[in-house]
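1st attempt posting a full record on here, be nice pls
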Amino acid sequence: MKAIIPLAGKGTRLRPHTLTTPKPLVHVGGRPVMSYILDELLELGIDEMVFVVGYLQDVARDYIAREYPQIRAHFVVQEVQDGTAGAIKLAEPWVDDDVLILFVDTLFEADLSVTGALDPQWAGVIWAKEVEDYQRFGVIVTDEDGAMTRIVEKPSEPISRLANIGLYYIRDTTLLFEGINHVLASEKGASGEYYLTDAFQYMVDRGGRIRTAPVAGWYDCGKVDALLETNAWLVGGGRALVSDEARISGSEVDEPVRIEAGVRVKDSRIGPNVTLEAGARVENSTLRDCIVGAGAHLRDCRIHDSIVGPQSELLGARGIVNAGPHTRMVVDD
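the predicted structure (as tokens):
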């Protein structure tokens, strides 16, 4: 099995952080978002992956080559941002067997091993999460067997609460690319793009059975507020840490937090739900629900629900801050 991972988007909802960093490499819980997914794929034994790159592609290529040399990586450039169907079409030359398709602006708790015991009747699997605010998502309508019958974008009526999370397994890749070709030859969608979900609808309409599978958790990383919520989930679980190599003096730590090696905290209150990456310095400050990048320096700050990029300097900041890398912010009372 191979994996197809689209990385070409500009991540405009995460600016200014994505002005210099591809969205999948923005940090949460002290690591790039994409790294959690790559690790899980490798644990499943999937080491051949097709990356669809575009915006800041050299940064993504360098990261994968440096941090994941064991991955047999293929790169293809999406020159025109024409949607998810167009992105997956570009990976076709490397697809000669079943594939996982993963959009890495979310983290998920899903059992991907179900693909290994899938009954031959199924052409694929689409993972979904039951949600209350169904109007915000593309939702999956199923039959009594749990097979997808259609996907409806942001329905006004509660026809389904199963939100599409952007994680797919396709066994019948011939039918998939037939569907993608059909979509690319049709009119573009409402946003001027070609949607991969329309190719799935094509598959279903022509007899392909796509099974829905549940996820225990689904955590968005595509917007600032969502990234902070995901950071809280991570530091509240397996990513919690107060490193023995951090220096904390005259300060109070309200767990859960992640405080990495080389961090210095003095006369401050940190937490809950705060990540301080390696080498950050915090003095006379109060932080909660924040991500502070490596090497950043905060003094006399009272901030919450904020992201501070690496190597930034904040003096006297108050309230909510969204500062990209190498930012200097001085607030005079």
